[in-house]
Design goal:
single chain, 279 residues, alpha/beta, Rossmann fold, globular, MAG_DAG_Lipase
């Protein structure tokens, strides 16, 4: 089964089709709504379900990465899994996509834990639409990989979390470290905690190119990424950069968790050549 990225062009993930035509073409139904989290932010959520005769064999929750969203590349992967029989859902993190941000700021995550809380709350409400016997999985890219692991650890270790354990996690290009292309140069990395404490929203952290520039190997896909009206290429703010470094340093792996991990030679489904994404 080919990934829907094969139908996209450099201007639209749906290619020459409208969004409604695209979903109908793939026999997928789509829904969306805004939810209000515990901090009063309106967060955009959406879901995809397979149309008959395809039967639902499981649920899948997608966790997007830093500066990403659920309404551009990610929804192509959502449709890919939905066609295979998974009821799929996704949420725009605070300050990403259509979701409101902290103090109205775009792509600002000075603390990842509230984002984990948002994901758990929405994903659990989505899973509750189906019988408990239906297996559930997390699919995550980039920063979403770290968030997905934190979700599973929170599920296992926190007495406050009573949700059903996940059956597996699919990590695709997960952020288990910060590339030298994005890491603050010396000596800024060593003084970043001070800068973040004094001026947390200062875009002081330089990067060697935007995320789309270094993430996509094919030129037309870089153009498609940049065509999203909600994509930001601005430098990360000091507190966000510090939190990204902290999250990477705190990655934990345990033998008690069962992982269903997909390892790709290329960065992600949407950046892989057609011969690989059909596998």
């Amino acid at each position: 089964m080919a990934h829907p990225i094969a139908e996209a062009n450099e201007k639209s993930p749906f290619g020459s089709l409208t969004q409604e035509e695209f979903y109908a073409h793939h026999s997928v139904s789509h829904g969306s709504e805004y939810i209000t989290n515990s901090r009063g932010f309106k967060l955009f959520t959406q879901w995809w379900t397979p149309l008959p005769p395809t039967k639902i064999i499981g649920t899948l929750a997608i966790v997007h990465g830093y500066t990403g969203e659920t309404s551009w590349f990610v929804q192509l992967t959502a449709v890919y899994f939905t066609k295979a029989g998974f009821a799929t859902c996704a949420i725009d993190h605070q300050g990403h996509g259509f979701s409101e941000g902290l103090d109205g700021l775009i792509a600002h995550i000075p603390d990842v834990n509230p984002v984990v809380d948002d994901c758990i709350a929405f994903f659990d409400s989505f899973r509750a639409r189906y019988e408990p016997s239906v297996p559930s999985f997390l699919y995550a890219e980039s920063l979403g990989g770290a968030i997905a692991l934190l979700i599973t650890l929170r599920n296992r270790d926190s007495p406050r979390v009573t949700s059903t354990p996940w059956n597996g996690v699919i990590l695709n290009g997960a952020m288990c470290g910060i590339s030298a292309k994005f890491k603050p140069p010396w000596p800024l990395e060593h003084f970043l905690s001070i800068v973040a404490a004094v001026i947390p929203t200062w875009r002081v952290v330089p990067t060697r190119g935007s995320i789309p520039d270094v993430s996509f190997k094919e030129e037309w896909k870089r153009k498609l990424a940049m065509a999203s009206p909600r994509r930001t290429v601005a430098r990360p703010r000091a507190a966000t950069a510090l939190e990204l470094l902290r999250v990477c340093h705190c990655w934990l792996f345990t033998a008690e968790m069962t992982w269903f991990a997909t390892r790709l030679v290329w960065r992600s489904f949407t950046d892989a050549p057609p011969v690989r994404i059909r596998r």
